Every structure is written in structure tokens, then in C-alpha cells.
Recover the amino acids of this structure.
């Protein structure tokens, strides 16, 4: 049980267990790596080792079951899609000075830590400078560059890498009972992320993926379609980033097909025929890639995602 349920990240899991066994637990960790590869899942399974009555993450004792249900009183979690403001930091500051309820430790999780406002970062820094000894902080981020050096220097950093294609394929086959062909496709288009793969298992998302490809490189180009699709993919920042990554992969595949004549490296194999139909010169391809990358950078800010995506789509269609 415990870490056995998590695909990949063997080195990181081993390091955490070693620190726990040697009783050399840092007061703060920074988990950094791409979105959707299991960073928070590792934290939650590690919490079972910390709280477990047997120290084995047995998944049967009361503390383990509480962690599994998300109801353990000594786990405080904040963060998500929206920005983490000063009010969140005040809640953290208040929590860290309360003694744990059931254990001799408390776990404090700050998910999407890059979304902290400057005020929140300053407040957290003060907390990390002199934290009560029973707290363990876990800062989770997919954008380490947005975490101040003053905070990073007070954390033990664990870098999480994308999963291998074989690991993803095995996960989709064994955990979701997906057939071999579909699991192979999902392992190619997930960019090393189980979270992205799960996103594409939703039929509506998968269908919209093909509509985007037809809009950008097929013959179904229109302003109305561009506007409707832009609205659909702008509903959450997380979803938007997955769709933008997909668009980048489209242009990558077009490069291999049109410039190298090599279809063995194509990720989006289910739409290979559509990709091969569109001829595009390198200058146009480079400009398209640059526009998508600029849009990805813009998504870090508080903007009207729909308008920005619509503008991008219209330029890419030209």
C-alpha cells in the first residue's frame, strides 16, 4: 500500500521514506514539476506513512483511513485554481501555532504555490523562518520560477519529472481497463502526465481536441467556430493549459511529417491523416509556435482568457 499505489517517482518516494526512517524530516518541502504528474498524490500517500499507527501506510488503521477520506484533522490544505491571497496566509499562520489534534505532527499543504500573491509570499516567509517544530510544509508548484528564492532556500526541493510512456500506458490499462490501442494513444498525448491523460479520457474533451485540429489545420475554418472553441477551452486555467499543450504538439507533429517525412515521432496518431494533408512552410510553423508559447506565458496573469485565446486562434487559422 502507500507509495505502491503511485506510478513512477521511485527516487522521490525513496528519499522521503529515508528521511522519515532516519528522523531527519525537514520542516518544509518544495515539490516542483509539470502539472498532473502526481506531486500532491505523493504528499497524501506520504502523510499516511507519517500518521499511520504501524508506520507502513497500511490504509486500514483510523489515521490512514482519515487521510484517504480527506478528513484527517492534522492535514491543512490550501490553494488551487485561484490565487492564494493574504487571507489564506493568515489561516496558515493561525494553524501552524495550534498543536496537532491527533498526532505529534501537522502537515500543511500549499498547492499551486506559484499562485501566492506578494503579500502571501511575505507572510509565508515569516512563518517558514521560525516554524513550530511539529509542522511539515509541502509547497507544490508547476512553475518554480514564480517561487521567490527566499522561500525556496528554506525548503528541501524534490524535482518530479514526467512519467515514461510505458508507465502511462500501463497505468491506463491496469487502473482504468482501457484497451491497448487507446492506452497507447493516451500515453503519447499525455506529455508524461496522468492528469492530462485522465483529461483526455473525458469524451467531450477528446472530441473538442479533434475540433481544434480541424479548425487550425483542416478545412473547417471559420470565425464563429474559433470563437466558440475559444470560449470552451477558456473555462479554467488548468484546462486551457492542456489544450495549449495539445496545439503545440500539433505543430511539432507537422514539422516531423512535412519537414522530416517521419511519421514515427508523431504524437497525435489518431489524426495523422489530417496532419499530413496540410502543407506549411517553416516560417509559418515557427510563427505559429511562437504565438502559442506567448499565449501560454500570458496565462500566468489575470487576463480575459477567452479573448486572448480567440485572438490566438484567428491568427493561427490564417
Amino acid at each position: 500500500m502507500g507509495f505502491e499505489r503511485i506510478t513512477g517517482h521511485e527516487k522521490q518516494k525513496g528519499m522521503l521514506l529515508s528521511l522519515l526512517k532516519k528522523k531527519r524530516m525537514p520542516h518544509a518541502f518544495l515539490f516542483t514539476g509539470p502539472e498532473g504528474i502526481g506531486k500532491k498524490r505523493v504528499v497524501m500517500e506520504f502523510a499516511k506513512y507519517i500518521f499511520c499507527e504501524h508506520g507502513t501506510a497500511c490504509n486500514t488503521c483510523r489515521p490512514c483511513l482519515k487521510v484517504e477520506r480527506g478528513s484527517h484533522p492534522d492535514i491543512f490544505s490550501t490553494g488551487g485554481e485561484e490565487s492564494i491571497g493574504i487571507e489564506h496566509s493568515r489561516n496558515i499562520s493561525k494553524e501552524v501555532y495550534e498543536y496537532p489534534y491527533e498526532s505529534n505532527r501537522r502537515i500543511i499543504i500549499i498547492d499551486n504555490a506559484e499562485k501566492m500573491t506578494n503579500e502571501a509570499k511575505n507572510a509565508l516567509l515569516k512563518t517558514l523562518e521560525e516554524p513550530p517544530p511539529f509542522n511539515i510544509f509541502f509547497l507544490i508548484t508547476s512553475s518554480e520560477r514564480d517561487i521567490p528564492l527566499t522561500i525556496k532556500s528554506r525548503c528541501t526541493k524534490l524535482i518530479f519529472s514526467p512519467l515514461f510512456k510505458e508507465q502511462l500506458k500501463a497505468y491506463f490499462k491496469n487502473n482504468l481497463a482501457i484497451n491497448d490501442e487507446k492506452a497507447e494513444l493516451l500515453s503519447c498525448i499525455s506529455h508524461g502526465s496522468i492528469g492530462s491523460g485522465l483529461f483526455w479520457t473525458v469524451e467531450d474533451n477528446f472530441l473538442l481536441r479533434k475540433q481544434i485540429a480541424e479548425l487550425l489545420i483542416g478545412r473547417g475554418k471559420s470565425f464563429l467556430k474559433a470563437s466558440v472553441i475559444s470560449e470552451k477551452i477558456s473555462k479554467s486555467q488548468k484546462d486551457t493549459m492542456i489544450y495549449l499543450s495539445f496545439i503545440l504538439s500539433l505543430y511539432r507533429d507537422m514539422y516531423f511529417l512535412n519537414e522530416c517525412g517521419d511519421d514515427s515521432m508523431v504524437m497525435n496518431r489518431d489524426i495523422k491523416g489530417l496532419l499530413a494533408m496540410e502543407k506549411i512552410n517553416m516560417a509559418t510553423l515557427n510563427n505559429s509556435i511562437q504565438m502559442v508559447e506567448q499565449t501560454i506565458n500570458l496565462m500566468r496573469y489575470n487576463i480575459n482568457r477567452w479573448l486572448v485565446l480567440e485572438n490566438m486562434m484567428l491568427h493561427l487559422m490564417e
Remarks:
- The first strand starts at residue 28 and ends at 32.
- The chain has a mean pLDDT of 88.
- The CA atoms of residues 17 and 46 lie 8 Å apart.
